[in-house]
Design goal:
alpha/beta; eleven-stranded mixed sheet; globular
């Protein structure tokens, strides 16, 4: 049986608005009866170490914000405040990071931990023991380190990365579109999205002649999904103004998809950053939840 989602890594650095990512995190945690491993990365552990502990009142957090000496401190404290409000509002059981897994199966739980060192390395290491990592959408005016962290996890964790949409979605994972081009990256994404596909109302495999590389075709993917007890259809889409990424998003929208699974950077990241590419377009333009694997 496919391993279920039980540990969701939730990096909370670099985003001023956590509403959308928290909304998706709550949906996933309840769906899979999973633990939310929220983490904040602090360059100086003495600045933010107190953030992880319990027993800090809302008044104390507000006072900490007022007395913070750096923007990084204020951001980290504000994240702690938002996290506390989130778990309190939704009745999520909070556990200390050192006790994660000691009471598995007792429902949805959450923890907040402080990691030290450069954010990309610290989060990549932690993500290797998570079933998935959930990150906020790359806001145009957000912390520039967010993109570096996202790509570090995508390239070096060996686990799926899920990117929340810009705004809290009404649903996620009810209608799933799977981008397929026959590559190893697409194959891994297909495997990683199975836990969601099992619970979806409808699944569609999207392919394009200009996107397809050497490898199995979409009809074979439908057969593979059927072997896993998942009913799916296949559809071929066209690029929009020669832009495959735009065509993919258009096809996903026409399917009313609320989640997209895809392999990332089948071409090199450098080539896509310079010339553009499907992955880059999705990262910049997607309005739905996206699962990426590489």
């Amino acid at each position: 049986m496919l391993i279920d989602i039980k540990n969701i890594l939730l990096p909370l650095n670099g985003s001023g608005d956590l509403e959308a990512v928290m909304s998706v995190a709550l949906d996933f945690a309840r769906r899979f009866d999973a633990h939310l491993s929220a983490v904040v990365v602090g360059a100086d552990p003495s600045e933010v170490a107190t953030l992880a502990g319990e027993g800090i009142s809302a008044g104390m957090v507000n006072e900490m914000i007022d007395t913070a000496t750096t923007e990084a401190q204020r951001r980290a404290i504000a994240i702690r405040k938002a996290f506390d409000a989130f778990i309190h509002e939704h009745g999520i059981r909070r556990v200390e990071p050192s006790k994660i897994g000691s009471s598995a199966g007792d429902g949805v739980s959450a923890s907040l931990d402080v990691l030290t060192g450069p954010a990309p390395a610290a989060l990549t290491w932690r993500s290797r023991l998570a079933d998935m990592t959930l990150v906020p959408n790359l806001a145009k005016d957000g912390d520039p380190r967010a993109s570096e962290t996202l790509h570090a996890i995508l390239f070096d964790s060996g686990r799926p990365l899920v990117i929340a949409p810009p705004a809290p979605p009404k649903t996620v994972g009810k209608r799933i579109a799977i981008a397929w081009n026959g590559t190893p990256e697409a194959s891994l994404a297909l495997r990683c999205i199975l836990p969601w596909a099992h619970k979806a109302e409808a699944v569609q495999v999207l392919t394009c002649q200009d996107y397809q590389r050497r490898g199995p075709g979409a009809d074979e993917v439908v057969t593979y999904l059927r072997m896993h007890g998942i009913s799916a259809t296949a559809r071929e889409f066209e690029a929009v103004n020669r832009d495959i990424g735009a065509g993919l998003l258009k096809a996903a929208t026409e399917f009313n998809a609320d989640m997209l699974g895809m392999g990332a950077y089948s071409h090199s990241r450098l080539r896509q950053m310079i010339l553009g590419g499907v992955t880059r377009h999705i990262l910049e333009q997607a309005q739905l939840t996206v699962l990426m694997s590489r």
